Task: structure prediction
Amino acid sequence: MAVYKTPGVYIEEVSKLPPSIPTLETAILALIGYTEKADRQGVSLSLVATKIYSLLDYENLFGGAARSAVTLWLDAQDQVIDATVDQPFYLYDSVRLFFANGGGPCVIVSVGNYNDQVSAATLAAGLSAIEKDPLPTLIAMPEVTLCHETHTLEATALAQCAQVKNRFALFDLRLQHNPADLATEAARFRQSLGMDHLKYGAAYGPWLVASLARTTDFNQLLFKYKSDGRVVSAEQLTQDQSMRALIAAIRAAGLVKATPESQAQLASLNQKLYAQYMLAKQWIDAANIALNTLPSTGAVAGVYAAVDQRRGVWKAPANVSLNEVIRPVLNLTSTQQQDYNVDVDAGKSINIIRKFTGKGTQIWGARTLAGNDNEWRYIPVRRLFSWVEASVSQGWQQMVFEPNDANTWVRAQAMVENFLILLWRQGALQGSKPEQAFFVNIGLGKTMTANDIAQGLMRIEMGMAVVRPAEFIILKLTVKQAG
Result:
């Protein structure tokens, strides 16, 4: 209390607003992987968590896409059987998909450049770089799908999320091109991941064919024959297909003369040239699809950010169409999805991305890896609790070193209740009245003992009735008899 000793006018500002809890960010993605470069005005950004706001920021600091060569596997008739990208890198395109699907500010951690070999140890170093950074709330490592090691890195990411609390990890299954191989990959993923901290992550599959206009140079194509293992360059193959011989024949035949024989010969040669053109077009199309086949987590993380902004962290990031995506690599049916959504053995649910007529490509699942856990089965439930815990913890910083008495307890309780009432009004919590939606307890004899107060401990208990997604909607129909 102020002491006044000199006559005069004194002004005192009295705050009428109660202490409040800040609303923290919910979808700041940390993308960890390999980049073309990593520097800001000559200062290295390698293994430095760097916040960016746009794709232009990324390109200025980390460069563009890798110039990856493509190998096409051909049959005896030179038809494409398979296409593979030699030494692919996915971070740049994942950033493009993130922003295309509604993503905002994110954090980039460069662990190496395109001359390096992808390894789990290097990606683990990037994961360690964000361990003490309070900013990221989501983690994605698209290039972990290129590692041949078991899923120890994914387990490490889950452990970090459990330690930080306000963090959630997104994983991709390895690339597979048919349903049987995808089922085998899912079984391997579930078996090798372990059982710890599953509520802090979610897995997605299959991969996506994006429309990001990644194109290949025809002269960089490499051709391999499945039958005999022959390896042929683009230049050699066009010679084998007699493209140059056809051109030479046109010149040698002097087909500029308008005779019936020359016209028939020209028509025959034109058909051969057209067939060669169509074959080359098939090769280019297959190569471009291979270049644009990408892990899904960049696009999925963008949906997380967009849904959080439009609706809130309590809304499931599912039943949302993906932008800049043509289709999933595999389009599974409802029957095929059953064993991915519900894993009766280990509970490791995998969210499937599917294409629907008239709706495009959509995320068709919202489960954490703890699919058998009644409390933490759904992604929005886990993420809402994590966000509330982080926000309340940040708000309580102002209570540290305050007197541990009834006045402080009332202020702390009111602060939390006001925060939860706002969530209830926005539809994040169930109940027709606030007391049905949450509870907050604090005080001597309620949450604390006299010994707690003597030890300087102020304990508060809170509970929330969180809304859960309507995952299964059942429509019951009955035939009504006339009369």
About this structure: The domain at 29-65+83-213+293-376 is CATH 3.40.50.11780 (Rossmann fold). The chain has three domains: 29-65+83-213+293-376, 218-291, 401-464. The radius of gyration is 30 Å.
